[in-house]
């Protein structure tokens, strides 16, 4: 694996491959456990909370307070048994998400992305996957949603270094889903009115398995 070119950019937290994409599949258990061990689990905000429905602020300060936020996000993600979590899902309007997500081959990916931008793919690379999708902020609800089965995201890592992440299948869905969160979109916003209504009905009829923030 090639390390990031330090003459062109700061050395990253994780190594990169020959195409410049972060290698987020190594030492996953140790890295996730280290973050989680330093964090405090927070309740999840749910649909209707204003913080979920507006674009978050860019991360510009990567200091100690921010590092604690990331640790809390990993702890919260584990409590909720999620595969991805955006900062506004624990009530913080900052453009950062964490993930601990397998791809369709069962390979585990663990990482942090700040200020993400989805790379627009050419039409010949956009194959849609209409698998079911769920969200910790819409607990107990699921609906099929067509998304490209490959995704690339650019942004910064938890120290502010440039980073590129790519994924296929379920992991690609995660990258798109979490980036959406940071721009004020939930997956149910991409559904038809009937499908959205059904998802909200599922949520209303069931109890979440993790602590949530009640909407007043």
UniProtKB/TrEMBL annotation:
EC number: 3.5.1.88
Keyword Iron attributed: yes
Keyword match Protein biosynthesis: yes
GO MF term (any one): peptide deformylase activity
Gene3D superfamilies: Peptide deformylase
Keywords: Hydrolase, Iron, Metal-binding, Protein biosynthesis
Cofactor binding note: Binds 1 Fe(2+) ion.
Amino acids binding Fe cation: 135, 177, 181
InterPro entries, per the entry: Peptide_deformylase, Peptide_deformylase_sf
Catalysed transformations (reactions): N-terminal N-formyl-L-methionyl-[peptide] + H2O = N-terminal L-methionyl-[peptide] + formate
Cofactor(s) listed in the protein's UniProt record: Fe(2+)
Active site: 178
NCBIfam families xref list: pept_deformyl, PRK00150.1-3
Family per similarity comment: Belongs to the polypeptide deformylase family.
Role: Removes the formyl group from the N-terminal Met of newly synthesized proteins. Requires at least a dipeptide for an efficient rate of reaction. N-terminal L-methionine is a prerequisite for activity but the enzyme has broad specificity at other positions.
Protein's UniProt name: Peptide deformylase
């Amino acid at each position: 694996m090639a390390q990031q070119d330090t003459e062109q950019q700061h050395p990253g937290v994780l190594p990169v491959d020959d195409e410049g994409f972060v290698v987020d599949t190594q030492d996953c258990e140790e890295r996730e456990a280290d973050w989680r061990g330093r964090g405090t689990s927070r309740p999840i905000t749910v649909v209707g909370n204003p913080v979920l429905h507006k674009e978050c602020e860019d991360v510009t300060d990567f200091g100690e307070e921010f590092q604690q936020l990331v640790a809390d996000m990993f702890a919260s993600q584990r409590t909720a048994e999620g595969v991805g979590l955006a900062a506004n899902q624990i009530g913080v309007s900052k453009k950062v998400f964490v993930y601990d997500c397998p791809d369709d081959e069962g390979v585990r990916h663990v990482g942090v992305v700040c200020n993400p931008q989805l790379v627009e793919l050419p039409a010949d690379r956009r194959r849609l996957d209409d698998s079911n999708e769920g969200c910790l902020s819409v607990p107990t609800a699921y609906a099929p949603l067509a998304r490209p089965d490959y995704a690339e995201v650019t942004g910064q890592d938890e120290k502010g270094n440039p980073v590129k992440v790519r994924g296929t299948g379920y992991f690609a869905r995660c990258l798109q889903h979490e980036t959406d969160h940071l721009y004020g979109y939930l997956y149910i916003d991409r559904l038809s009115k009937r499908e959205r209504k059904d998802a909200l009905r599922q949520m209303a009829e069931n109890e979440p398995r993790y602590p949530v923030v009640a909407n007043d």
